[in-house]
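User: Can you predict the 3D structure for this chain?
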Amino acid sequence: MTQPKDFGFDADAALLRDTARQFLLDQLPTEALHRLVASDHDPHRAPTNNWNPALWRQIVELGWTTVAVPETAGGAGLPLVALAALAEEVGRAALPSPFLATAAATLVLRQCQGAGTRDLLGEIAAGRTATLAITPRSGAWETAACDLYLDNGKLHGSAWYVQDAAKAEVLIAKAAHRDGLALVAVPVTAAGVELVPDSILDLTRDQAHVHFHGVAVDTAQILAAPGAGAATLDAAWPGVLTLVAADLCGAGEWLLQTTAEYARTREQFGRTIGFFQAIKHPLVNLMIQLDHARSLTYNAACALDHEPERAPALARMAKAAAADAGAFGASRAIQFHGGIGFTWECAVHLYTKRQKHNQILYGDASYQRARLAELLFGV
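Assistant: Here is the predicted structure, written as structure tokens:
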């Protein structure tokens, strides 16, 4: 099977993207975002979870949560390039919401065969929020790494670096079992679940580590039976990486456009600073890097639907390129904004911190290229 023209990005996907962009411009302009997440500049503040649940309800009404859910489970069942486009717009707005976490959980659920999977996908389409609880304390992103154990119907142990945990209603947890890895759905309100907020750099998200103190799990909560969890996660992982890459591209585009606009208006030595090659050339380089990363991201998203055997390699290429572009764009944006670029009042710091979080999340560029080398060359 080969990919369709333009990665399958059709009129429906374009309309969804454009509508989402205008909606976020109207509902969450940069000034409103700064007031929402950066009202407290105290570096010793407690971990926060600043978001707008009313805005999230509007997003649900617009059908964003249905995009990746199959039609058989009550969703729209759109191509994954449409989901990537939404993730890019979420990144462009630095939207504080459970959208990315829930979308990643949705992609994992699409690969599950458990009895309760279809019902849970339907609930997500209707607005229930979810997140992945699959990473050990060591931060290892490999599938086999696990600090959570399922024994005699109960969960013991912990999951770390859980994204937007304070906004989630259900955890998709990876647990070791004597028969192999399993995936289970656990409500955050279940007895024995303890969420401990983490202090993180990114002000537009929250993160936590979760302890499971003998949490009871019945058969309806098992999404992937022991022994099937690893293959399920591996099948979903390219989509998860592609979502993060799309968010990186969106936030990177905001940094590029905002910095270019500043360069067109800020004057120094009798000219706008955009006149000088030391400014214009790096901005052009950033534009090229972002276009490269975006192309790889949509290529990976399209492969998930049309060439799944190529998706693991393409997704790692996309995440690596997007992480590099994100780091470069954030550093240039701060530098080219001069003295104000380092201040709390300048929104550039919000996007820089989001990019740094995305850059590391699920493995940075060096990590992705190392895994890519294993895939392609067996080294």
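The longest strand covers residues 154-163. The chain has a mean pLDDT of 95.
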